[in-house]
Amino acid sequence: MHKRNDFTEIEDFLSDESFRLWAKYQVDQQQWEEWTLEDPKRAKLVEEARLWILAMKVERPILDEKSIESALDKTWDKINEAERARPLFRKQKQKIWQYNWITSAAAAVLFGALIFSYFNTSLFSNDSTLVYHELIQENEEGLVEQTNNSNKPQIITLSDGSSVLLLPDSKLSYPKAFLGNERKVYLSGEGFFEISKNRKKPFYVYANEIVTKVVGTSFRIRAYENQPNIEVLVHTGQVNIKSNESVEDSNTKEYVLLPNQAVRFTRKDLTFNKISDAAADNTLSKTKNNIEDINFSFADTPVSKILELIENAYLVEIDFPKDKLKNCYLTTSLNDQPLPEKLKIICKSLGNNTTYEMNGNQIIITSEGCD
Amino acid sequence: MKIKIKKSTHNNDLALWSNLKLGDEKAFSQLFEKYYSDLVQYGNSFSPFTAKVQDCVQDVFTDIWIYRETLNNNVIVKAYLLASVRKRIARHQERDRIFRKSTTVDAIEFLFDFSIEHQLIADETTSFAVSNLNKLLNDLPARQKEALYLRYHEGLAVEEIAETLEVNYQSANNLLYRAILNLRKEWKGIIVLLLSLFTSIL
């Protein structure tokens, strides 16, 4: 099995991973000891190779996690600086425009939908109503738009590791990558957001007339173009909300919400209404999604159970080696983590040969079992 | 004891690389976290100024992100990063030299010294042999030493070393071979004596 019987040179040994492990750490997975003793000629070569390894030590780098983290922050600062110095790419936006409107037939259908929502909004609103498509036209980052035309929630993962569960008849526009010091996305309809933490780059959701700002938390926004109110409900963490500055004569007061608190914004007269117990609010609890009720804290829970729960919460399909993970149990809390983060934590806990791959709502976990 | 196993992470790296090219910040951060300290260590082999070296490594990553759309699809990520850091430091030193109005603009020199695994050496005979070998290793020409470092510490294959050092395959192979051949020749005397002792114990 092992090719070592053909080894004739020092470098054959030095290049062999398992030999190095044996020489340096006495980790003898391949029975080097036995193999060496089988043949005295062999022993000579092995001993020489071992001496080479002892004489070729390289000290481990002194950098700890914290200094790597701060180096990464510094690099992002450099990137932002360099990007500000470069001209904006206008043509990127054009490209997305083109592939969204591939055929004229599709364009016609979408156009019809826009008219419909215009008509609808005008029933409730005055001139200051801001709607989704006006907002995304202001953005110059080159946005990707995802629309959920199905009858089930859809999962969207963003480039920063955040995830959004987009409800039916809703759409979200977001940049392929978040440049600059802010993360901005645009929502029409309803979505449940789980945002990855990044103090340096606050996350903004523009939903019609209001702006929701967070650093890293989970919350739900209901902002349908054809409904009179916009609602934001906080699940974990802290959320700041104010009206969009481009709405004229709106009051600029900022609302700070904590878990189980919500605001209802009345679009007609541009007023906010704070709800301090969201659970008691009729509309909010009626519209609650599956995921908001699930507790992601686990104590000695079979991995298959955890994955099943994730499947139900995010409406994804997870393919994993059932036999190999049969006896794996986890104790962990995945609350307040975006979907990619949840999967990452699970893979990490299972051991270093476990990885996941995500493609739309299909997730594949490959694993050799747990340690 | 913490055991760090260098798995063949090539495929994993490529996946991160292609995600990075599409603008995935997470992939970028992961590659950064994975290789940053290795790159700083390698960079420090050319220049003792850690702050400057770190600056160079960060600049390499900055360029990767900014020009991500123009990056090649099929690279060996680790070799690419090592080579970029090497080039960046070389350029840096070249500039310094120009300011100093020096006459020669040599390629940068690998100043790193291998050390000895003292805690794994129990007896004097071994200790003697290892110190000798260590001295011979550190006296090798810088290029040969660098090739050994890349081969056995960073785990690069010969063609990856060639890429990092910007030479062709044959030259990289020669560097490695010559290093080991020269050393073994010089060391023969010591080793013969030592091994006769060693095998008689066995």
Layout of secondary structure:
The complex is a heterodimer of chains A (371) and B (202).
Chain A: H1 10-14, H2 17-25, H3 32-37, H4 40-55, H5 65-85, H6 91-100, H7 104-124, H8 132-138, E1 143-148, E2 154-157, E3 163-166, E4 170-175, E5 183-194, E6 203-207, E7 210-214, E8 218-223, E9 229-236, E10 239-243, E11 255-257, E12 262-266, E13 271-275, H9 282-286, H10 290-293, E14 297-302, H11 303-314, E15 317-319, E16 329-333, H12 339-350, E17 355-359, E18 362-366
Parallel strand pairs in A: 5-6, 15-18
Antiparallel strand pairs in A: 1-4, 2-3, 3-5, 4-5, 5-8, 6-7, 7-10, 8-9, 9-12, 10-11, 12-13, 14-16, 17-18
Chain B: H1 10-21, H2 25-44, H3 50-66, H4 77-99, H5 124-138, H6 142-153, H7 158-165, H8 169-201
Helix pairs in contact in B: 1-2, 2-3, 2-4, 3-4, 4-7, 5-8, 6-8, 7-8
How would you describe the overall organization of this protein?
- Chain A: One of its GO terms (molecular function) is sigma factor antagonist activity.
- Chain A: Keywords: Membrane, Transmembrane, Transmembrane helix.
- The complex is a heterodimer of chains A (about 375) and B (about 200).
- Chain A is about 35% helix and about 25% strand.
- By secondary structure, chain A is of the alpha+beta class.
- Chain A folds into three domains: about 5-55, no CATH class; about 90-290, Sandwich (Jelly Rolls); about 295-365, Phage tail protein beta-alpha-beta fold (3-Layer(bab) Sandwich).
- In chain A, the strands form three sheets. In chain A, strands 1, 2, 3, 4, 5, 6, 7, 8, 9, 10, 11, 12 and 13 form a 13-stranded mixed β-sheet that branches. A three-stranded mixed β-sheet of chain A has the order 15-18-17, with helices on one face.
- In chain A, a hairpin with a 2-residue loop joins strand 17 and strand 18 (about 360-365).
- The radius of gyration of chain A is 27 Å and the shape is elongated.
- Mean pLDDT of chain A is about 80; it is low at about 90-130.
- By secondary structure, chain B is mostly helical.
- Chain B has two domains: about 10-100, Rna Polymerase Sigma Factor, Chain: A; about 120-200, Winged helix-like DNA-binding domain superfamily/Winged helix DNA-binding domain (Arc Repressor Mutant, subunit A).
- In chain B, about 70% of the residues lie in helices and about 0% in strands.
- Chain B contains eight helices and no strands.
- Chain B has helices spanning about 10-20, 25-45, 50-65, 75-100, 125-140, 140-155, 160-165, 170-200.
- Chain B is elongated, with a radius of gyration of 20 Å.
